[in-house]
């Protein structure tokens, strides 16, 4: 299992320090949510922040683009320091164009789908991408409740993709529900609120025990 702590829930005033705590706890990935105020209502941050924190860590930068025109920003996001780029299938006409762009730059390419998008929308791309991200909350905000109805989609994905494929789950993960999520077939777990509330190192150790 790969844990990808989401810095959306971090204290941005001491971001580099909190990323060090993530590293110390043994996590290898860092989930970075980019929101444009258009594809989702919320606005977060983008290239300048990614570029700044890139100086402080070698963690794998798992960038989740919640933006309307991912193709226009993939190169800039990679230039800023992304190791993996995941975009939303709802935001593009032909996902393969974005996947090609990401892979041509040698980065891990992921496709995400929102809770109301059927799993059939992403199944045709399993052989074209490195990771599929099943959103278990509506994208745009941290701290929401996990939608258990997405578990069936995770199971369908795992059955179709085979055992090593990366299936990421994002939204509402807690120490209480992580086992059921892993059991459904996810192997890359994003966690924001439950990592950055309280003792970061303790929380990560509890989630990855
Ligand atoms: C939501 C973001 C998530 C968010 C998860 O749109 O994509 O990555 O940070 O936060 P929690 O773990 O608090 O649900
Ligand atoms: Zn995310």
Find the structural class using helix and strand composition. alpha/beta
CATH architectural label: Alpha-Beta Barrel
Shape designation = globular
- Please count the beta strands (DSSP E, at least 2 residues each): 8
Instruction: Please outline the major beta sheet.
Output: 8 strands, parallel
Question: Based on the structure, what is the oligomeric state of the protein chains?
Answer: single chain
Low-confidence blocks of residues: none
How large is the count of helical segments? 8
**Distinct ligands, ions and cofactors found in the model:** D-xylitol-5-phosphate, zinc ion
Determine and state the CATH class: Alpha Beta
Instruction: Provide the helix percentage.
Output: 25-40%
**Overall residue-averaged pLDDT value:** 98
How are helices and strands ordered from N to C? Answer: EHEHEHEHEEHEHEHH
Could you give the order of strands across the largest sheet? 1-8-7-6-5-4-3-2
The CATH superfamily turns out to be Aldolase class I
Tell me the distance between the termini.
Answer: 11 Å
**Beta content:** 15-25%
């Amino acid at each position: 299992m790969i844990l990808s702590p989401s810095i959306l829930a971090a204290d941005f005033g001491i971001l580099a320090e909190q990323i060090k705590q993530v590293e110390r706890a043994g996590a290898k990935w860092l989930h970075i949510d980019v929101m444009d105020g258009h594809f989702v209502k919320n606005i977060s941050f983008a290239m300048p922040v990614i570029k700044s924190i890139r100086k402080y860590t070698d963690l794998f930068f798992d960038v989740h683009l919640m933006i309307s025109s991912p193709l226009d920003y993939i190169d800039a996001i990679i230039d800023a320091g992304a190791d993996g780029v995941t975009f939303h299938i709802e935001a593009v006409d032909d996902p393969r164009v974005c996947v090609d762009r990401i892979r041509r730059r040698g980065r891990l390419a992921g496709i995400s789908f929102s809770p109301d998008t059927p799993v059939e929308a992403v199944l045709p791309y399993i052989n074209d991408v490195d990771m599929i991200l099943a959103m278990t909350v509506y994208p745009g905000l941290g701290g929401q409740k996990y939608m258990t109805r997405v578990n069936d989609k995770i199971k369908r994905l795992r059955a179709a993709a085979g055992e090593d494929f990366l299936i990421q789950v994002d939204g509402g993960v807690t120490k209480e529900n992580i086992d059921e999520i892993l059991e459904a077939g996810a192997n890359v777990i994003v966690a924001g609120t439950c990592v950055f509330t309280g003792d970061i190192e303790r929380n990560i150790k509890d989630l990855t025990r």
